[in-house]
Specification:
Immunoglobulin-like; 131 residues; mainly beta; 1 helix; elongated; 4-stranded mixed beta sheet
Amino acid sequence: MIDHKPLEIFDIILLTNKNKLVEFTNNNDEFYLEDIIVEDDILKLNVSYSGGCKKHQFILIEKKNLQRSKNVYEIHLQLLHNSNKDNCKKIVTEELFFNLLPLKTKFQKENINQKDINLILIINNITINYN
């Protein structure tokens, strides 16, 4: 359960809008994805990384999607990290929040006749269901 209101909720970069990737194309710095929670169309990711001296940036992009059955879609997402060349060694833990509603809406529009759409999210090789 998300126990507090997120400070900032980011959008997922969908396949149709990849022009925001410029600053991340050559930088995907190391991080650890500690936990994934989906609640009320919000994806919460707990990450940790070394740094502490500069502002780090994360984006979540839609890599590909596959239709498994009539109303079940497998969506591959990738979380990318730009450390901005932060060489500090402190272990930083951060909560990231992403709005899943545009992703859900995209598949609902493509399947107007389907009442329930089940999305299987695969985020950096970790699987979670989202209905």
